[in-house]
Design goal:
Strands 1, 2, 3, 4, 5, 6, 7, 8, 9, 10, 11, 12 and 13 form a 13-stranded mixed sheet that branches. The chain is of the alpha+beta class. Helices cover 34% and strands 29% of the residues. It contains eleven helices and 13 strands. It is globular and about 65 Å long.
């Protein structure tokens, strides 16, 4: 049997999550509520299959495919994918068989997944899904003490932290939502300076949804030069796992170690709160020498591989949509983008 749970049913969603142990914070319903706003007409759902004491869950965004009557499903901009409380091949196979029936009934023709490096759940992918190693991510496996954490970060980062201290920079956790306007101003300045695409502009509705995570689920750490906020790091947290969600800094303080200090303050505080893993995420590109990835790597303890998954669920309908889209746009569909019609 299965249930389809909307992200607005926070209690029902969280009850399903609780069946599968420690999960990536991207699985949280409030995070899905926020990111469902990023794709027009999308709605966030969690598909929950259970048999006896075994559970299989799969959160996704359900989105109309143009005006065709069909839908696609995709993982939110983050790290989720299907996961189960049992590794029984028979149970997983039965779950996917039931999901296929659900997808057929709902006219779902394609799916795109972003798997979690914390849960390493690419192993639960549908047998017909193409799973691809997309890029490296900087991650931290947190030790027990600040001293051990510093040792794991390496000499260059330790030197930057010393420089931040010597130049008088200080760090502290920021109370949300009180400091949210300050963070947003700093973030907007950073995105403008880096000429970031519009997708990374977050409006009031997004922030109102994300604040639903509460003070334990959404945490922010700032670096100050006197009373001036010059860098900040924000994390989404769930149990033992955390996601470095957004960061911002003023360029003139980078050489003083402001960015390093904000990430260290975040890592140290999350460690002290019981977190064991932080996904610092990746770079602006998939390149191993991407400058943002290298910076995050220098402030993390390890690298992990980010996997994505693609599957055409209804081949005939997918071909029909492809031909319709190509005729309408006078373009050739990008074979690498399974949900190409969103561009």
């Amino acid at each position: 049997m299965h249930k389809l749970i909307a992200a607005t049913d926070v209690n029902g969603w969280n009850a399903a999550l609780a069946c599968c142990g420690d999960l990536d914070p991207c699985f949280l319903p409030e995070y899905h509520q926020a990111y469902s706003l990023r794709i027009e007409n999308s709605r966030a759902f969690l598909w929950h299959h259970n048999a006896k004491d075994a559970h299989f869950i799969y959160p996704f965004l359900l989105t109309p495919v143009m005006d065709t009557g069909y839908f696609d499903i995709s993982g939110i901009y983050g790290y989720t994918g299907p996961i189960a409380s049992s590794d029984s091949p028979e149970f997983i196979s039965n779950a996917w068989k039931e999901f296929n029936e659900f997808a057929e009934a709902k006219n779902i023709i394609a799916e795109f997944s972003r798997f979690s490096p914390f849960n390493k759940n690419e192993r639960y992918a549908h047998p017909q899904m193409k799973v691809i190693a997309n890029r490296s991510l900087a991650v931290s496996y947190l030790p027990e003490t600040e001293e051990k954490l510093l040792a794991l970060l390496g000499s260059k980062t330790r030197n930057m932290l010393k420089k931040a201290e010597q130049t008088g920079l200080t760090s502290r956790e920021l109370v949300l939502p009180d400091y949210l306007p300050d963070f947003r101003d700093l973030y907007a300045e950073t995105m403008s300076r880096n000429q970031a695409p519009g997708f990374f502009d977050y409006d009031d509705d997004y922030w109102n949804k994300l604040l639903g995570l509460g003070s334990k689920g959404l945490r922010c750490f700032g670096v100050f030069a006197g009373e001036k906020l010059v860098a900040a790091s924000m994390a989404v947290v769930s149990g033992k796992a955390a996601l470095y969600h957004l960061g911002a800094s003023l360029t003139q303080y980078a050489k003083q170690g402001a960015g390093n200090l904000s990430l260290f303050a975040m890592s140290r505080s999350l460690m002290q709160s019981g977190a064991e893993f932080i996904n610092m995420t990746g770079g602006r590109t998939a390149a191993e020498n991407d400058s943002l990835l290298l910076f995050k790597k220098s402030n993390a303890t390890a690298l992990a591989t980010f996997y994505i998954g693609k599957r055409v669920i209804n081949a005939a309908a997918y071909q029909q949509v492809t031909e319709q889209w190509q005729k309408k746009t006078d373009s050739i569909a990008d074979a690498e983008k399974i949900i190409f019609w969103r561009d």
